[in-house]
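Example 394.
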Amino acid sequence: MSRMTVEQLRQDLPMTAEVGYFQTGTYGPASDSVLQAVRETMETEARHGPATPAGRQSHIEREAAARSGLARMLNVQEEELGIETNTSRAMQQIVRGLDWQEGDEFVMTSLEHVSTYGLSYSLKQLHGVKTIVLGEVYDEHLLGDLASVLTDRTRLICLSHIASPNGRLLPCKQAAAIAHDAGVPVMLDLAQSVGQMPVDLKELDCDFAVGSGHKWLLGPMGTGYTYISQKQLPNFHPNFIPDRSPWSLPDAPTPAPTARSRTEIGTYNHALVVGLGRAVEIAESIGLDTMQERITQLSGRLRQGVGHIDRARIITPQEPGKSAGITSLMFDGFTKTDMDGLVEKMHQRHQTVVKSQWLTAPPDPVKVAMRISVAAFNDESEVDRLLEGLDEEL
Ligand SMILES: Cc1ncc(COP(=O)(O)O)c(C=O)c1O
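Predicted structure in complex with pyridoxal-5'-phosphate:
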């Protein structure tokens, strides 16, 4: 694909003519090109019959290209990737695939997504697993605390690459080194990082990873992926049994373990995978470096502007390399109802879409923030309109 510019991406997202959209951390918009890829695939399947050669032809090659494109973008082997519908399901596939015993320990940070908390409660109920939550998320404390909580019962460490509530970029590579020294595998939650910056999983040296296509990657809703490293694949026994797995046909020759044969179950929507592949192509053709630079520049403009708003406090770390496109704000004296009202006014009066977000983690547990996701398709005029709107409403 020839190189695409951010301006062309904006044109491919008609929504940008209507609103300043700062909710990509929840749902990213799928571009017209992505929708076209999905539509074409579904139409060809339906028109020719999905199981006919012509119907199948519509997706086989493009789906294979999508899978290898995603693998290339994450710098992993294709065999290490499985397609899923979202991060939460992908995470369940991994975590439930481990051989938990009563008294085992699961380590996570206090900044994990609510779905990870839910999973940790179920591990306790199902297997008697103890969860240890690392509450001090400043890098040096996090790493020190991580080293001190690891025991011979620790079975898995789960870290968000970028934390959902406040956009903090966690020191995943350093955490993996500490974990591996103790012989413990690491699972990364990539929901908030992939698609807004280059992410190299070999460099991060994780054992497992999960992510969504429908956030920063701007893929179709209901797409995600599971990464299982070659090192972990032979010992990985899924909880749900995929139809290509050795457990489905015990007497058949055992296929080589791949993430696909260990996590993908039954029929899935080929068109969505093709759409995800198109989203990856677009991200690569603009360049993830270019997107990251633009996001940094726009986020800098936003944060500087917020500095002039008296009631607003930025709770996202602002040192270089400690955050990316998410900026979370708190406003003095604001309740959840106040924040919901402000978010509504920002939409109605200022054509600006932001999120009212519970903070489930330190430094402000059970408090509410405004989460602003600045994506590469946003522009300066949208950031300025957001700032003017806040200034006027506060
Ligand atoms: C860090 C993180 N993990 C997981 C999720 C859940 O993603 P999904 O809805 O794709 O399951 C989110 C959603 O916002 C998230 O921010």
